[in-house]
Amino acid sequence: MEGLNITEEMVSPDSVTRQLSDQISLAKAFVVIAKESNNLQFAWELSAQIRNSQILLSNAAIRRTPLTTRESETAIRDMALLLYQAQQLHYDSATMIMRLKAKIQALDDQMSSVSEKSSKYGQIAAEEVPKSLYCLGVRLTSEWFRNLNLQRKHKERKQIDMKLKDNNLYHFCVFSDNILATSVVVNSTALNSKNPEMVVFHLVTDEINYAATKAWFSMNDFRGVTIEVQKFEDFSWLNASYVPVLKQLQDSETQSYYFSGNNDDGRTPIKFRNPKYLSMLNHLRFYIPEVFPALEKVVFLDDDVVVQKDLSALFSIDLNSNVNGAVETCMETFHRYHKYLNYSHPLIRAHFDPDACGWAFGMNVFDLVEWRKRNVTGIYHYWQERNVDRTLWKLGTLPPGLLTFYGLTEALDPSWHVLGLGYTNVDPQLIEKGAVLHFNGNSKPWLKIGIEKYKPLWEKYVDYSHNLLQQCNFH
């Protein structure tokens, strides 16, 4: 998109953006001093003005046009008055600089230690499979192989249900090895759908959880929603000769990188070493046309989401010949391409705007007709093959997604997909308006480390009175 280059504006000595940014930096320093001096009222005034200035910068970034003097003069004047007042209230520049340097160094040391410990413990907690989930999987697997009627019911549905290929219906897909989380996604979608009988869910899991998943969705009803369960091990095309990432995932050095992390002197943050990235279920989103060859459009949902609105309107959104419909994430947090990719690499610099807006996986509308026409999977293979040494990006599926769907993504209204419920505070108004709530982050609602105030949003779709959930001590 033509327009504002954020980087150039931030460094230009003549830009209003640069002036506001400098004021914000100085004001943040005075906030620290004000709090140290117990002048909390003044610290609050500074923080409020910082927020006002940041909103101006954010608005300019979103519309991609530079700030004008006219629209920012009030904010600049008000901040200048506060900064002048701060200088009168506190210290001379030399004293302030010395104190700030000492304070910043102490905070940096403290934050480094806390962040490292928090990341390690949070990662360990997030990777743990709760005993209750393990219990549910075991009991469901046993139930499936014991109950022939259950198997017959599932087989009959697969044979006679032509809805699985009917492109006039609403097709959703979830790739997951977490039965309960998947159940919440399906249940919340069904309960909030105006026409649940028109909803089709295509679930893909792995060999270990296949029988248990089939059993759960065969013995429970979801308001008439049609449900298909597959396991990715059955996909004959899913082999190392066709799928570059599969070959990489089988590589012993890659596995060592994920699990031990001893081959780069600890330079890579622990969050990028999550063994979930070794799961093919995590990478299957780049092969949706192969997984569902009869479908023309599908809505992809992660298993850590809750649906609280009817999603049928997603299927009539005009993607303007794009392949991927997604909610952008660059708003006030400035999650742009340079946050995810290595711009010191010439291939990245040559092909991608560092200020391009990032977007989110987790609720995506995919036009599979356009996908096949533009050979999007081939684009994905191209970039995966050039990142064998992990120099273009580290790990995960979002960076290759940003490369693969660059110029092929249509921005959706932000209310369709609200993120952050698994790691941060989210505006209650956004939660109320959101169609899909995403618990991205380590603090999943089914874990003990889940954020307590957000757990009810997820738990309302769990039937804790179910005999199997009671037997497995879900509460």
TrEMBL record:
EC number: 2.4.1.-
Topology of this chain in the membrane: Single-pass type II membrane protein
GO cellular component, one term: Golgi membrane
GO biological process: cell wall organization; pectin biosynthetic process
InterPro entries: GAUT, Glyco_trans_8, Nucleotide-diphossugar_trans
Compartment(s) where it occurs, according to its Swiss-Prot or TrEMBL record: Golgi apparatus membrane
Recorded GO MF terms: polygalacturonate 4-alpha-galacturonosyltransferase activity
Pathway: Glycan metabolism; pectin biosynthesis
Keyword Glycosyltransferase: yes
Top-rank lineage group of the source organism: Eukaryota
Glycosyltransferase among keywords: yes
Keywords, in A-Z order: Cell wall biogenesis/degradation, Glycosyltransferase, Golgi apparatus, Transferase
Family the entry assigns: Belongs to the glycosyltransferase 8 family.
Protein name per the record: Hexosyltransferase
Source species: Carpinus fangiana
